[in-house]
Design goal:
Rossmann fold; about 140 residues; about 45% helix; 5 helices; alpha/beta; 5-stranded parallel β-sheet
Length: about 140
């Protein structure tokens, strides 16, 4: 399993990496621009991500815009919705507008509010149909 963790907060990145590293390889991006570039590169190398964990509030390119760019890249590569990468949007904001935008404008797969809890994250990943096996 291959994960992309996109978050500008060091502690959040570290926690997500610590949880997910038991189940696969983790790449890290510190903002939306890096996340989009990592996603594009992984597709070009034919080694796509299984899951993207994307913070919403980040510098340079926020998570909402980064997710829209990721979905555009998938369209350019002819990837249909059923095979699109699973994306969990993560935010410190429990804001109905952000949730709405994540699902309906960016086609997020899921949404988690910080603080990140290990079992909540693992349950959410499993609910998306990704099978977690310890590496």
């Amino acid at each position: 399993m291959k994960f992309l963790i996109c978050d500008d907060d060091f502690d959040s990145r570290k926690l997500l990496q610590k949880i997910l590293a038991n189940y696969g390889y983790c790449d890290i991006a510190v903002d939306g621009e890096e996340g989009v570039e990592a996603f594009r590169t992984a597709l070009a190398e034919k080694d796509p991500y299984d899951l993207v964990c994307m913070d919403i509030l980040m510098p340079n390119l926020d998570g909402q815009d980064a997710l829209r760019e990721i979905r555009e890249i998938e369209k350019e590569h002819g990837i249909d919705e059923e095979k699109a990468v699973k994306v969990i949007m993560i935010s410190g904001l429990d804001d109905s507008k952000e949730v709405h935008d994540a699902f309906f404008l960016g086609y997020a797969t899921s949404y988690i509010v910080k603080p990140i809890r290990k079992q909540v994250l693992l349950d959410e990943v499993s609910s998306l149909g990704l099978i977690l096996k310890e590496a």
